[in-house]
């Protein structure tokens, strides 16, 4: 007499369908005072409310900044801003959430009006970056003579400065908003599966979130 045998049971290894993630807008790390040589920075003496200030014109800076100490000392108007985070040289992350609107400063014979974001700058008072440089047409930057030439109201302006040293610059880098990117691994139990079968099944168990 032949006794009936039970068919071997295997656990279902079919991966569960992935839920569709809602697409999120991509954020990038935007360099401000990072990854640029000192030749792209020019230090100039300026005046703010008749007080002497050190101004750094930086072609590698995305935004304009002002020292928090200068703002407090000169009692400048400031307002809250839904801003961004900035990483400085010691890897400390600072939140830039205030700005001084339409600050008027003088660079030699040039009157400058710009919005400046507050940061605890070290060794300088103001940074003028792309936000300001983009308002000027046809800028001629002479790195050997440390001059910047451009026309303002049909009059040629020449700003003369000194090369910025590492002591008067800071490594600032805008960091992206809080987002996470990684892989979650879903583990299943397998019974008597050969290595090749495992290799075919495992990639389906990796899900990016």
TrEMBL record:
Chain segments carrying region Disordered: 1-29
Basic and acidic residues composition-biased segments: 1-22
Pfam families assigned to the protein according to its UniProt record, in alphabetical order: RVP_2
Protein name as annotated: RVP_2 domain-containing protein
């Amino acid at each position: 007499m032949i006794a009936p045998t039970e068919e071997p049971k295997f656990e279902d290894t079919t991966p569960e369908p992935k839920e569709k993630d809602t697409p999120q807008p991509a954020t990038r790390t935007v360099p401000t005072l990072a990854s640029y040589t000192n030749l792209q920075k020019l230090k100039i003496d300026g005046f703010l409310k008749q007080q002497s200030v050190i101004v750094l014109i930086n072609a590698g800076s995305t935004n304009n900044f002002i020292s928090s100490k200068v703002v407090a000392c000169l009692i400048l108007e400031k307002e809250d801003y839904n801003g961004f985070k900035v990483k400085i040289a010691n890897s400390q992350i600072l939140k830039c959430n205030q700005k001084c609107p339409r600050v008027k400063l003088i660079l030699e014979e040039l009157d400058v009006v710009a919005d400046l974001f507050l940061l605890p700058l070290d060794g300088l008072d103001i940074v003028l970056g792309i936000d300001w440089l983009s308002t000027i047409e046809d800028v001629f930057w002479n790195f050997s003579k440390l001059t910047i030439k451009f026309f303002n109201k049909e009059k040629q302006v020449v700003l003369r400065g000194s090369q910025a040293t590492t002591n008067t610059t800071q490594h600032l880098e805008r960091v992206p908003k809080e987002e996470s990117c990684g892989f979650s691994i879903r583990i299943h139990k397998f019974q008597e599966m050969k290595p090749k079968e495992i290799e075919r099944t495992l990639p389906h168990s990796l899900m990016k979130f």
